[in-house]
Specification:
single chain; 450 residues; alpha/beta; Aspartate Aminotransferase, domain 1; Aspartate Aminotransferase, domain 2; seven-stranded mixed beta sheet; four-stranded mixed beta sheet; 14 helices; globular
């Protein structure tokens, strides 16, 4: 079976002839703004493996950018989606109630670590929709107009979430943008101000929130602070717990809601069902959590969860949508959660993470171009620099690594403010042999390209 295979390239180069022909058709039919630098045309996916149309096998460390924590084509997911499809595909939840939506909301209310004993959940289709809805809910509850986001943040590509996203390459030429979105500094400790110790740097980053209050919006006008527990596009940077606790206190002191964007970090990726479980253990649980990506094994679905009093502040008609909580997606998500809990995939993420960190940290010792290694569970970033002393970013090397590894059967992706980080997001069902094969391909590429 494909899910048990190792990387194998049988064509002279990637793309092979069949893939090349389809990519040429793509170029003619689809806007180039839907960018893809990978010369891979998928025929089949199982587990952590992809087979292309020419019969090449790739181990996938991207997993649809965090969508496939449970892997490609999990047979139990396929079975429940088939079963649901034979009943009905869709019934808009504002028109007919379907039990899958209700059951999934009940399940999410039981496992999502937001503050409050009584919780409510509703569903959307994408991470951007979830984040936008979370902001709407925060404004409805607090009756305040503004929000605070952070440097390095990525929250989506709708008009509001483009504004929330830090990297304006994702919003080029799309303004004017909504008002009331202000940005503080995220604690990127590897690139903290020169000479600062970590403890001093955390205080420095906390102070940047107070600067927003002073220079942009008084605290009493801020509805929410929105933060990724572990920044994705920003470079796989975990939020230090001392900083999280300080942000939680700022919110409590000023009547501000804390929103955790768990679109990429949720569903066992970081060694807990949600990264915010770490926050809850530190008595710093958020008020609203948004989730998406791996929630439904590849079917479009996202969720917004908060305590009941927050959710019930929203006026009728201001949230929801035609496809939100689609029946097929809800069926998949219920089975995803069941499998993750049954198979202890949070523990598997920690086990994978230890193996990857051991190897990455060895490379940090061995290679001048490896500047930093960081992450939680199996969400790990490795940052490449021109040299360790200056920490000058090395995006060209990362671009070359992406091109080189795919020719040898490994799919990897970049991240980071400077495009100089490789993100590890392999499906949690990857075998140890596949993981080792990917690490070997990656290290060989570093040696060749640096």
């Amino acid at each position: 079976m494909l899910k048990d295979k190792l990387p194998r390239i049988i064509t002279e180069q990637i793309p092979g002839p069949k893939a090349k022909a389809i990519i040429e058709r793509r170029e003619d039919a689809i806007p180039t703004a839907i960018k893809c630098i990978y010369p891979v045309v998928i025929e089949k996916g199982e587990g952590a493996m992809v087979e292309d149309v020419d019969g090449n096998y790739f181990v996938d460390w991207v997993g649809g950018v965090g969508v496939l924590n449970i892997g490609y084509s999990h047979p139990e997911i396929v079975a429940v989606v088939k079963q649901q499809s034979e009943k009905y595909f869709h019934g808009m939840f504002n028109i007919v109630t379907h039990e899958g939506y209700v059951e999934l909301a009940e399940k999410m209310n039981g496992i999502v670590p937001v503050r409050g004993d009584v919780k409510e959940t509703f569903f959307a289709n994408s991470g951007a929709e979830a984040d936008e809805n979370a902001v709407k809910i925060a404004k409805a509850f607090t009756k305040r107009p503004n929000i605070i986001v952070f440097s390095g943040a990525f929250h989506g590509r709708t008009m509001l979430t483009m504004s929330m996203t830090a990297k304006k390459a994702y919003a080029y030429g799309m303004g004017p943008f909504p008002d009331g979105i202000y940005r503080a500094q995220f604690p990127y400790l590897y690139r903290k101000p020169l000479g600062m110790k970590n403890e001093e740097a955390i205080n420095y980053y906390v102070e940047s929130i107070y600067k927003v209050f002073e220079e942009c919006s008084p605290a009493e006008h801020v509805a929410a602070i929105v933060v990724e527990p572990l920044q994705g596009e920003g470079g796989f940077i975990p939020a230090p717990m001392e900083w999280v606790k300080a942000v939680r206190k700022i919110c409590d002191d000023n009547g501000i809601l804390l929103i955790a964007d768990e679109v990429q970090s949720g569903f066992c990726r970081t060694g807990k069902m949600f990264s915010s479980d770490y926050w809850k253990e530190a008595d710093a649980a958020p008020d609203i959590i948004t989730t998406a990506k791996s929630i439904a094994a590849g079917l479009p679905l996202s969720a917004i969860t908060a305590r009941k009093e927050i959710m019930e502040s929203v006026k009728d008609g201001t949230i929801g949508g035609t496809f939100c909580g689609n029946a097929l997606s809800c069926a998949a998500a219920l089975k995803v959660i069941e499998i993750m809990q049954r198979d202890h995939m949070d523990e598997r993420a920690c086990e994978m993470g230890r193996k990857v960190l051991d190897r990455f940290n060895q490379w940090k010792e061995d290679y001048e171009v490896v500047g930093d290694v960081r992450g939680l569970g199996a969400m790990i970033g490795i940052e490449f620099v021109k040299n360790k002393k200056t920490k000058e970013p090395n995006p060209k090397l990362v671009f070359d690594l992406v091109k080189e590894t795919v020719q040898n059967g490994l799919i990897i992706e970049n991240a980071g403010v400077y495009g100089n980080v490789i993100r590890f997001l392999a499906p949690l069902v990857i075998t140890d042999q596949q993981l080792e094969a990917g690490l070997d391909i990656f290290e060989n590429a570093i040696r060749k390209c640096m």
